[in-house]
């Protein structure tokens, strides 16, 4: 049976090597910690459906390698991403210090409108913390991105991070700030019937509302 969803969003998981990107994604997809994670080579892929704001959204998620030597490969996957989960490790200040570079890459290679959720991962390692919650939330505020601390071990806030990103994209679509039909928006409608509705409406010169679109999907 084919999956039914209202929208499909393309997401990236980015951040320095070893911050826990693959473990965060594994926790999201399998509800458990992968204690055998190795460095990602290039990119890996996963998908799942989440329900936010009364809509069903398929997340198509690209987990990128953080190691510098794969940067040219991973950069080629940024194009057309609607959202990014930007991870650092709360126990390693160097991973926090490189966030500005990751942000620049996301905005220039994906889209200036990309919705970014900052995840301070390894929240379970409180005793080894090097980056405070407060300074990270200030950084997020200054850069107008969302922020959560997560743990791929306990699962805390993992699902919330992806949901928060999806919710924010949805809100911006509904507010007319993001146009899903723009080339490279990283967003697709969920059903071919929608395209039919749009072309019918276009012939009638009617613009479908988001409600029409979702009813149809
Ligand atoms: N304590 C703790 N360890 C974690 C957490 N997330 C990941 N790890 C550990 O951190 C290490 C790196 O995790 P990965 O998920 O492979 O890191 P990555 O960011 O995908 O690394 P690259 O693929 O090289 O970019 C592994 O040893 C994990 O077991 C977490 O939330 N808490």
UniProtKB/TrEMBL annotation:
Its cofactor is Mg(2+). It is found in: Early endosome; Endosome membrane. Its EC number is 3.6.5.2. The keyword RNA-binding does not apply. It comes from the Eukaryota. GO terms for cellular component: early endosome; endosome membrane; recycling endosome. It catalyses: GTP + H2O = GDP + phosphate + H(+). The keyword Protein transport applies. SUPFAM superfamilies: P-loop containing nucleoside triphosphate hydrolases. One of its GO terms (biological process) is regulation of endocytosis. Keywords: Endosome, GTP-binding, Hydrolase, Lipoprotein, Magnesium, Membrane, Metal-binding, Methylation, Nucleotide-binding, Prenylation, Protein transport, Transport. Its main location: other. Pfam families: Ras (PF00071). SMART domains: RAB, RAN, RAS, RHO. GO terms for molecular function: G protein activity; GTP binding; GTPase activity; metal ion binding. Belongs to the small GTPase superfamily. Rab family. This is small monomeric GTPase. It comes from Ciona intestinalis (Transparent sea squirt).
């Amino acid at each position: 049976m084919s999956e039914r969803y209202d929208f499909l969003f393309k997401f990236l998981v980015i951040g320095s090597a070893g911050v826990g990107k693959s473990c965060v994604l594994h926790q999201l997809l399998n509800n458990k910690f992968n204690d055998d994670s190795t460095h990602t080579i290039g990119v890996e892929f996963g998908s799942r459906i989440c329900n936010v704001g009364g809509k069903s959204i398929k997340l198509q998620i690209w987990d990128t390698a953080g190691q510098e030597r794969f940067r040219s490969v991973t950069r080629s996957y940024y194009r057309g991403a609607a959202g990014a989960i930007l991870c650092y490790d709360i126990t390693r200040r160097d991973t926090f210090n490189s966030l500005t570079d990751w942000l620049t890459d996301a905005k220039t290679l994906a889209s200036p409108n990309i919705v970014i959720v900052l995840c301070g991962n390894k929240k379970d390692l409180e005793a080894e913390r090097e980056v405070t919650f407060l300074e990270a939330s200030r950084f997020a505020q200054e850069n107008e991105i969302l922020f959560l601390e997560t743990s791929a071990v306990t699962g805390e806030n993992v699902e919330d991070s992806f949901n928060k990103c999806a919710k924010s994209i949805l809100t911006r679509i509904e507010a007319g700030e993001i146009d899903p039909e723009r080339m490279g928006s990283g967003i697709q409608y969920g059903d071919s019937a929608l395209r039919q509705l749009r072309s019918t409406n276009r012939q009638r010169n009617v613009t479908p509302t988001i409600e029409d679109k979702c009813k149809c999907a």
